Protein: Antibiotic biosynthesis monooxygenase
Amino acid sequence: MKAFMTNGTVDFLEKLEKKHPNIHLYFMTSNTGGLAYYEAEKNIFSAGREYEILIQKGNIQDEGYVVMNNIPVTEEGQPVFEDRFKQRQNEVEMMPGFQAFRLLKPKKGRTYVVFTQWRSEQDFENWKNSKEFKHTHHGQTKPPAYFADRPFLTNYHMIDKNDD
Structure:
């Protein structure tokens, strides 16, 4: 399965839904603008990003809070990075408020996306402050050698289309 996302104004992105009624698009917003996301085999975006879904847990919901950890990984480090996620404990899935997890490998470029969706921003903060988070992330202060650059987070609130 593949995942696709593109950025734009919320008005522009919502027009995509009318053009592609058979695709379940998820709409999100942040302080930098809107994002449309969906999972399928075919790309409908003229400009956007394509990913292979390597790990999939839970179901993405139309409501919630999404955190994407964007991690640039060196080419030679990709197998180690992917294996680290395949071997990890499933502690995040057991946390209150957890909704979905995806490990997304880019078709172009080298920036993987670790996508998590939570019922609320507070649920995500509770995860970040938990002993399970500290155990999973091993209290790392220095990035692993396979990181090509510093990871960065992007945070989104799902757009509730019923609020119109």
Observations:
- The CA atoms of residues 68 and 127 lie 14 Å apart.
